[in-house]
Amino acid sequence: MQLLKLVESEIQMDVALPWNVRNHDCALLLARGHIVSSEAQMQALLERGIYVDLEEKRAVEALYVPKSGPVKSIYTRWADTVDTLETLVHELPHAPEFPANIEKLAQELITLADLDADIAIFLAVRQDQARHLRYGYSHSVYTALLCILMARRMEWTAARVRLITLAALTMNASIADLQGQMASQDYPVLDRQRTQLRTHPIDSAALLAKAGITDAAWLEAIRQHHEQGNGSGYPRGLTQIDELAQMLRMADIFMARISPRAIRAPMIVQDAARQMFRDDKGGAMSSAIIKVLGIYPPGNLVKLASGELGVVMRRGTEARTPLVAAVTDAQGRSVTTTLHRNTADPAHAITGLAADDKHLLSRVPPERLYGYAQACALT
Question: The whole model's pTM is what?
Answer without folding.
Answer: 0.80
